[in-house]
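tool=predict chain=A
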Amino acid sequence: MEDEQVLVRPPSEANSFLLPVTFGCSHNTCTFCGTYSKMRFRIRPLEDIKRDIDKVAKNYSWSLRRVFLENGDAIITPQRRLVEVLKYLNEKFPNLEKIGTYTTPQAALIKSVDELKELHELGLKIAYMGVESGDEGLLKKINKGATYGQIVEAGRKIKQAGITLSVTVILGLGGPEGSQNHALKTARILSDIDPDFAGALTILLVPGTPLHRDWEEGKFELITPFQSLAELKMIIENAKFTDCFFTANHASNYLPIKARLPRQKAAVLQLIDEVLTSKDMSRLRPEFTRAL
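tool=predict ok
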């Protein structure tokens, strides 16, 4: 039922009209994610989507500027239907400036560059994609459903279409044992994709997920706060960006970081080094305040 939907959006979409185009996530098997675990994936009927648009347009037709397409990968919607949705949004909101969406790598790969360009011309300005790691073995272990090469291809297609690309990676996903390999290969995949925005989150265990069960059974070990900072340092140190706004200021992170890379690379590395050297826990976000 539609009242069972889960509305999840990036922090930067706080002021957007959240429009469900799909329910759930078409992949929905990543071992660390419980967001859509109880939802059956489905694409909404066009008439239902238009009905939601009409309700909002009654009061905000001229003032609404931003729309975010829900849920986990609205971009997987068949092209003709998605084009119709974007055209209807532009019709109902004449001053609409920006449409955003989540996408999985798999969903982005289904679309051709020309199809993505068509969506961009209709207002799709930004796509948010989870990369998680550049470690091929770890990608398999977490059931990402896409290889290193497929993730890079998906990101590059989105950028080629003119759509701004924002990606996320997860610190600590490889545990202490795989920490260095995870960090260095994540730096490499970020370099290969060269996104416009990149965000590093820190692993938080979600009860009921396979990764949480692995932790309960002693098969997975969490990294320490300072180990997470060491990973963050390795990623920033080794990633080669053209011009990327890089953040690690999510509620899950221990040390809030925002930097334009590569321009502010030296300054942000100096800050991380200072905290790593001091081992001063008071400079880190307290554990009880961390959240998904």
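The domain at 2-289 is CATH 3.80.30.20 (pyruvate-formate lyase- activating enzyme). The two ends are 25 Å apart (CA to CA).
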